[in-house]
Amino acid sequence: MVSQKSMSNPNIVCISIDSARADFSALHDPGASPMPFLSSLASEATVFEQAISPSVFTLPVHTSVFTGLFPLEHGIFWEGNALGDHPTFAELLADNGYETTAFYNNSWLDTGNILRGFETKNNQNTHKSSDKSKLAEFGEKLQSVSNSAFSLAENAYSFQDALRRWIRHSNPNYVDQGGAETLQNVKSHPDTGDDPFCWFIHFNDAHFSGGYSAPHPYHKSYTDRSLIGLAYNQSVWNRRIYGSRLAKREVIAGNIQPPHREVETFKNLYLGCLEYCDELVKGVVDELKARGEWDDTILVVFGDHGDSFGERGVFGHHCSVDDSLIRVPLLIRDPDDRLHESNTYGPVSLIDIYSTILEMVGISHPETKSQDLTRGSHERAFVHYHDKGTETLPDTELARLSDDLPPQRMYAAWESSESKIIWYPDEDEYEIQGPRGDQLKDILHDHMEGLSEIEPANQGIDRDTRSRLQDMGYL
Fold this sequence. Notes:
Elements: E1 11-17, H1 22-25, H2 36-41, E2 46-48, E3 51-52, H3 58-67, H4 71-74, E4 80-82, H5 89-95, E5 99-104, E6 119-122, H6 131-142, H7 147-169, H8 179-188, E7 197-203, H9 227-242, H10 245-252, H11 260-290, E8 297-303, E9 308-309, E10 315-316, H12 323-326, E11 330-333, E12 343-344, E13 348-349, H13 352-360, E14 381-386, H14 388-391, H15 395-401, E15 409-416, E16 419-424, E17 429-433, H16 437-449, E18 457-459, H17 463-471
Parallel strand pairs: 1-7, 1-8, 2-12, 3-13, 5-6, 5-7
Antiparallel strand pairs: 2-11, 4-18, 8-11, 9-10, 14-15, 15-16, 16-17
Helix pairs in contact: 6-7, 7-9, 8-11
């Protein structure tokens, strides 16, 4: 079957891989990359080797991707706000005859009205009772016994639950409830005939909330630890490090220090998760080929932010704008070859996806700081971070930890790993890398003064979404 679409209205498939950091993904180095399919695809695509995320957290980053606005402009950093009066690329595409659908498994994407313009298919909604909620129910029954008995029972239950998970994941016939179901939703989505389509697909399978537990065979691609060792890592150290907003900040404050072996296990499991995500992306491309759509499809693949494994004392993605969090993979495959080069080395921002997609299909859009990447890269990229996760801790915990935590607001200008400035406005202090400190200071402030803010709307989140985000260790 061959598509009858013209390249004047190509399909667009935009794939986001949560928590994929650039150095671990290594798309520019097929021999070293845990993502062999994407690395091989680089021969017919453009890899942006210095792609920078505008923030370090799923919600503000995707809002920026969908709008071409920096986080301070759209104002969506945490729950409570919704996107204001500015069109998403999905809305503009839908207005111009595109069928637009979002497939995902991360409930942050259900907040802030950021998927406006997409028909949404969140397979996280289909799983009502998570392992964490089961553990909470079990704990409530034991709480009345004694604190020590409760703690022992909770640890035993957590270990057994983790071991069951790893046994499931080691079964070649096991189908996970994350990326595999998201991919199945893509495959079962009906054809659009001759009408062009835009799919946004988000794979959450390299996120710490899943315990870095990829299914067989990817769970053992980079580690030789036994299933019991993996269950110990997940039930003890993953839960202790990533289990809640408070836990992650206890680590940064130096109150919890994971052993070196467990950190190496986190990294090795994470690499296996990236390899699994690579296979999921391949599944999407295979589906496009089976439908006869591949030759008429623009493909964009990016990591929304990275993950730290102890850099600056951080595990996960928060409280830092370190390169481990802001440098992400970005690949664009354009059948019309308007990007030309296979690798580009100048700084680009994920906000540039907005203008690039819309310019490629000839759809007008509001002027933003987003740049059409067919016209080249930037001299630098900018990052905005507000640590709402710390700001909304209980007052007693915040008072106890505040002296040992980084500032809650950070803005950065990034030219390269050797030339970067971070401004902490609450302390009016700067962290400078490289010799261009004074110039970068002026450049960053000019950037801040040139932002055009839109007024966000107020919007809470429903109980089910809140529960799912609690399961992920956020609320």
